[in-house]
Amino acid sequence: MTPVLEVAGLSFAFDGAPVLHDVTFSVQEGERVGIVGGNGAGKTTLLWCLLGLWKGAGRIRLFGRRPEVGDNRVAAVFQNPEDQLFMPRLVDDLALPLVNQGIAPVEARARADATLRSFGLEFAANRPAARLSLGERKRAALAAALVTRPQIIVLDEPTAELDGRSVRRLIEALNDVALTQIVASHDLQFLGAVTARLLVLIGGHLAADGPTRALLADREMLERAGLI
Amino acid sequence: MIVLRYAAGSFSLAAALAAGLVRDGVLLATSGVAALAIRPFAFHGRATWLSLLPIGAFAAGLALLDLASNGVPSSLAVRTVVVFLWLTAGSRLMPWTDLLGRACGSMFWTPALFVLVTRHFVQVLSGETVRVFRARSLQVPRRFGPGAFRALAWALVAVVLRSWGRAERFYAAQRLRGLAG
To answer: B122 with B150, same domain?
Structure first.
């Protein structure tokens, strides 16, 4: 089976300071992969490279081609939902990428409404995202990413600053969608609940790649990664 | 509620336009009273009436100049105040952000999007400024002195850097959502 994502020898540096070193891995269709590492391990940088926002040395192939910003098959959820949601009404925020794809506004709003309903956010359709709780905003950002029906979703620190109930709802929402998921986080419990495979980044190096359950049981590895 | 705001906002803005064209004193006075009656719905607290002081002073000056040059006051000063009353009430009552959001996909979409993105950046900038200066006030209680000025300079640098970071992430997120540019 051809992987949907292939990364080979990826390195990236900020103003000469190396952040990622020779990272190699691949992701199959439908896989749920977690990227775990301490602060500054290179998780977000790796995601931005995968999304085509930053270009590093090495090779990245998404569906067999170099990643391009604006590829409808890939969607992303950023750590801060305010970076994504800015429209006066949540329904417009969800309709925005669909309108950008050329879908008629009426149809786009209908799809946005349906997506909000499936996330239990129909009550917030006519409110700005800023008026929602952080947990609701994170779910809204996820809904806004999924409304375009992507094949891969990339999430950066989705549980940051969330309370227990909001994390549980987010886990339910993620487990309800069947598509390739790449999740960067240092929330081990969350990764254990939503991913089957884990990539461990230590100082920009890919230190381990294996089943989530096995790696979460490897205390020595987690300690080396600064996660416990 | 939103329908009421659209109706009241549109009516007020139309009334402002009409008041600018009316010459009849009685009609202007009636319009002014109506505008004053609607004002508490558009403003809250002290701003309701305090914001009238500058325009009141301006109109009084205008009436005096009118009197000095023509010998008799015209309706210009009253008209100015009435237009101001309707215009400010209308601007406050009109749900502008909702209106901009509804422009999605229409011929006004590009300018509306520009306004919405600018508004978001202003909010980001003001939010970061408040956060940084609140942190500075906790760390440097003194308002003046060498240490306080150095802290102020660093706070301003922090605002710029943080806003830059937020703007970069916002731009990246919107590019991923298909907004070109």
So the answer is: yes
